[in-house]
């Protein structure tokens, strides 16, 4: 089938799937899924013959056109030849998935990895050869289908990567903590942690843990994930290539919308009902604080001549994500969403900033200190561009202490 025709076919499938999804959960037809895979087997065989005995990196690049045509419910662009990272930086080009180095043998964990930006983060890491652990709160059919779709694509292009999906409730700290400790017990290494999961701008809701949901899901849950997984990542950094073990926190330029009165001094403060954009902005402000505090408190001491785990926060851009589509209600909210979508980028484009921070080879043992604990509004962007409130060290300290207090309430001991 010609490329354009194939893309149109997949796009139509996306529309039908979304229409069905609005009426309730759609159970995937595994019979059709299997037939679709069988119909492409001859093409896959031809690709494998042409690949021959190329290196993993050459093999990955030679299959990039075919593998990005259609995966699961998504239509992906056919990539242009990639320029080296350094050339991209000089020319002001954006970081593209083709710039990701070979990740064979490495392990990554992506929260919120079964839809939107997180899906493409997980997909590209796996296509580069990584073992990817997907973590999400989505319904079982959605998460399992993402796992099946990506693994099928990996098999078709002979990638060494793989994905496995785990469902957790990000608004339940005990659930988050249990999974994080399970990963530490079962995995021998963790090279990349991408904290992407979150809820969009929505009305005030309290979680079962007695916390405002924006704060717990978008921020505090990732405090727990990072703190539990950090020892495993530090052990990995001791033998992995210097500067390649990284944590990426997804923040947002909407951190600027956090209330000017934000101090993170108490649980009562974050549980105060306020505007949905302010609650979202406050949670993303917390992500910038979390990034800085982890860098200063947990990653500032390291053996001479070594590079510690790197941590950065990024803004993915104005992305038309599923959480934006499902938040708010009423005619005013609909008008706001329509206006926003006229100025947004696709999910796969939004994933590029996170992928840059997680894998860019221009960040290395020579210059890593320029990136440690920093916030970037774009790939190859300048650091220290966050709001003055986000630079306040006293409030940052308050945030860290509040996280410790909240986890003590849930676990009986402080996680710090």
TrEMBL record:
Pfam families: adh_short (PF00106). It comes from the Eukaryota. Residues 37-50 have a biased composition (Low complexity). Signal peptide: none annotated. InterPro entries: NAD(P)-bd_dom_sf, SDR_fam. Residues 1-66 are annotated as: Disordered. GO terms for molecular function: oxidoreductase activity. Keywords: Oxidoreductase. Residues 1-11 have a biased composition (Polar residues). Belongs to the short-chain dehydrogenases/reductases (SDR) family. PANTHER family: NAD(P)-BINDING PROTEIN, RETINOL DEHYDROGENASE. This is WW domain-containing oxidoreductase. The lineage of its organism: Eukaryota, Fungi, Dikarya, Basidiomycota, Agaricomycotina.
């Amino acid at each position: 089938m010609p490329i354009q025709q194939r893309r149109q076919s997949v796009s139509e499938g996306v529309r039908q799937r979304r229409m069905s999804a609005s009426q309730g959960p759609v159970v995937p037809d595994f019979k059709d899924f299997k037939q679709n895979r069988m119909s492409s087997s001859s093409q896959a065989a031809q690709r494998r013959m042409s690949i021959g005995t190329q290196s993993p990196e050459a093999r990955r690049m030679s299959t990039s056109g075919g593998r990005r045509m259609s995966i699961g419910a998504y239509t992906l662009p056919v990539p242009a030849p990639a320029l080296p990272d350094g050339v991209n930086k000089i020319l002001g080009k954006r970081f593209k998935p083709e710039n990701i180095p070979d990740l064979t043998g490495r392990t990554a964990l992506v929260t919120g990895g079964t839809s939107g930006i997180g899906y493409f983060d997980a997909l590209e890491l796996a296509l580069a050869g990584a073992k990817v652990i997907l973590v999400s709160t989505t319904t079982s059919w959605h998460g399992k289908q993402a796992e099946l779709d990506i693994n099928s694509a990996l098999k078709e292009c002979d990638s060494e990567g793989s994905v496995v999906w785990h469902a957790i409730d990000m608004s339940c700290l005990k659930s988050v903590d249990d999974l994080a400790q399970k990963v530490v017990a079962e995995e021998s290494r963790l090279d990349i942690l991408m904290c992407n999961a979150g809820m969009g701008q929505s009305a005030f809701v309290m979680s079962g843990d007695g916390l405002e949901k924006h704060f717990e899901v978008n921020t505090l849950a990732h405090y727990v994930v990072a703190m539990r997984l950090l020892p495993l990542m530090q052990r990995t950094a001791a033998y992995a290539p210097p500067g390649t073990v990284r944590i990426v926190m997804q923040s947002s330029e909407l951190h600027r919308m956090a209330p000017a009165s934000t101090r993170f001094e108490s649980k009562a403060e974050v549980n105060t009902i306020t505007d949905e954009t302010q609650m979202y902005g406050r949670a993303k402000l917390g992500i910038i604080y979390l990034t800085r505090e982890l860098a200063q408190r947990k990653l500032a001491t390291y053996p001479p001549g070594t590079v510690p785990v790197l941590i950065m926060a990024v803004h993915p851009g104005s992305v038309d994500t599923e959480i934006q589509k499902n938040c708010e209600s009423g005619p005013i909210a609909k008008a706001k969403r329509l206006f926003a979508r006229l100025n947004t980028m696709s999910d796969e484009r939004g994933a590029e900033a996170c992928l840059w921070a997680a894998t860019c080879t221009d960040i290395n043992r020579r210059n890593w200190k320029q990136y440690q604990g920093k916030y970037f509004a774009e790939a190859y962007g300048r650091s220290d561009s966050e709001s003055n409130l986000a630079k306040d060290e006293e409030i940052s300290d308050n945030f860290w202490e509040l996280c410790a207090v909240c986890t003590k309430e849930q676990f009986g001991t402080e996680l710090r």
